[in-house]
Amino acid sequence: MVLVLGSDVLLRAVVPSDLAVAVPTGVVTSLVGAVFLIVMATRLKDAAGATAPDRLRIRSRAVFLTTTAVLAAVLVGVTIAAVLLGDSKLLLGDVMNWAQGRAGQTVSFVLDTRVPRVLAALLAGAALALAGTIVQAVTRNALAEPGVLGVSGGAALGAVLQGDASTTRPLAHSHIRPSRAA
């Protein structure tokens, strides 16, 4: 409660009141809360000396390796399916020919556009997984989500600022002239 009210007071003290009304309260609360959370996280004791129930337990090495192998196989299968399936369905032979430079023009066009998208999706998923792991490690909370650090509020602030900047363009720079009523 204090954080929400303090954030609102801080916003009104820093920004003129006509602009402060347009900024959602959650955005400022997230920005102030993120700084507060980082300061509090640096003051926490390290969990290296934690007792066994506080740490993650893996049942056995065999279960861990089996789970990792199954997840890797699923990832490879989904990646192959993403490359082969779409508006134009392809075969593995088409992909092999494309990789060797012997594919036809249509297959080359489809794979030249599809493969970079699949790779970008894989990298984005890995980055999101890493970011989630970092958020959970910093907050020392297995249920932590991006809103805890103000990521959602920061994205909302960016959307508000971008939307405001794109709609307040001067009329002189517009290509559409206002019509005059006769």
Shape: flat
Compute the number of strand runs.
0
- Secondary structure tally, helices: 7
Tell me the span between the first and last alpha carbons.
57 Å
Can you describe what's shown?
The protein is mainly α. Among the domains are: 1-44, no CATH class; 71-144. It is 66% helix and 0% strand. It is built from seven helices and no strands. The longest helix has 35 residues, at 105-139. The protein is flat. It starts with a helix and ends in a 15-residue tail after the last helix. 8% of the residues are buried.
Annotation keywords:
182 residues, mainly alpha, 7 helices, flat
Topology, pairings included?
Elements: H1 2-14, H2 17-20, H3 25-43, H4 61-84, H5 92-99, H6 105-139, H7 151-167
Helix pairs in contact: 1-3, 3-7
Short overview:
With 182 residues, the protein is an all-alpha fold. 66% of the residues lie in helices and 0% in strands.
